[in-house]
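Hello again,

I reread your note about wanting to compare the complex against the isolated chains. To keep things tidy I'm splitting this into two emails, and this first one only covers the full assembly. Below are the input lines as submitted, including protein chains and any nucleic acid or small-molecule components. They are followed by the predicted structure of everything together. The single-chain runs will come separately.
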Amino acid sequence: MPFRQAKWDEPIIFEVSDFSKQTFLIDEEFADEASEALSKVPKSLARGSELKIPNLSEVEVVRHYNRLSQMSYGVDVGPVPLGSCTMKYNPKICEELASDPRITDLHPYQDEEEVQGVLEIMYLMQRWLSEITGMDECSLQPPAGAAGEFVGALIMKKYHHDRGNDNKNEMIVPEAAHGSNPASSAMAGFKVVKIPTAPNGETDIEALKSVLSDNTAGLMLTNPNTLGIFESGIIEISDLIHGKDALMYYDGANLNGILGVVRPGDMGFDIVHLNLHKTFAAPHGGGGPGAGAVCVKKGLVDYLPVPIVGFDGRSYKLRYDLSRTIGRVSWFYGNVVPIVKSFIYIATLGPALREVAEVSVLNTNYLMSKLRRLRGVTLPYGENRWRKHEFVVSFENLLKETGVSAEDVAKALLDRGLHAPTIYFPLIVKEAHMIEVTETETKENIDRLAKAYEEIVELAYRDPQAVKSSPTNTSVKRLDVLVANHPKTMAPTYEYLSRLSGQET
Ligand SMILES: Cc1ncc(COP(=O)(O)O)c(C=O)c1O
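Full-complex prediction:
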């Protein structure tokens, strides 16, 4: 059956709305009270113009959003093989339990005695994540992986400062790293020192040795790395870093490939962030915060952001008493919902967490062995090595031979009812597709992905233009990426709101 995404000529909600109608009607019965209350609002605080929010009936709103949802694609519709994003299925039991009003209706200033249940969940999460990572304590505060990196970099900075080592101002980051690694290091005030990847796909240890100095504050690394390759020299790397009195930071975005098998703490890492919205099945995005818990080894516990949750044998408390804390990184625990979802996920799987890694690695390598055989496709770096959670193929040859690029192939996948993988990352691979098949995909779906790639590559040699004009089956056709990425077009309401306020767009 050919894939056809629903196509609705759907205006944005501001355009559906008729602003000539009055937005709010105050019931006659309350008119006097309302005008009296309004007369008490100080002039300086009163709205100068009418409130411009859509004035639609419930049914119009429900239909509008349902039509939009039929035009979108997500992990509940089909596979999303976005490398480095770990787009696994989010079990509905986690959604259901985390939607309990006893979680969602809590107030941040509520008495600790009244919120013992949620504090216990958070306390247990701190314990479980410490156990899973081989660390001693965690803070659940950071609302994303990148925020966790920033916290880790700030901890390093303060730790070196306290030891009188302000000269330690360099963070070493592999060239293949996710962009957030150099960005968060630079934001914390470090000079970023890049090191290359060796032909076997691992960190080039000789290059690492050549940049190490007394100024080295730490190394940020993800293992398995962004090529999906496990850094077999990790113990040597951590000895080299510790030998310079520097710290090891683990970017946990790729933990899915080793979950329950090896622990960052046992590899020599001192600070770890975890993306609960990747490894532990809390959904990504969706307008809410994520959860980028940070865990550390004993000597760094006092530096964690406060408050963490403590237990005195009788009750659970928010602890602010960490003597060297870098402070708060979120005002409240607004990310408690994804934390609870991940808690349920871990509680449900228990020791079977290890199978998550085993099946995701198996699925990924199964697909890799099919794709690497295709014409025009190569597997750069560590050609004879198995991958962990993800792999990166290059369409450089396909581009040279047919003019069809990695982007064109990705767009053609959309036409076949599949989500595209991550493209053009890591930067060390030309015409890259970074593909991650999580443990929640069936063999049939992986075969579907492989078949789609096979068809597209074959079409590229036969009729390159057909691939280059994809997608044609989707509700939105090929976008001009420059225009699409412009802030004015990124926010769909921008143009409309600017028009309302009389500004030029
Ligand atoms: C390797 C790696 N590190 C860090 C991050 C940042 O995580 P977040 O998106 O939660 O900020 C990502 C996100 O995709 C990633 O893939």
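For quick reference: The longest strand covers residues 216-221.

B.
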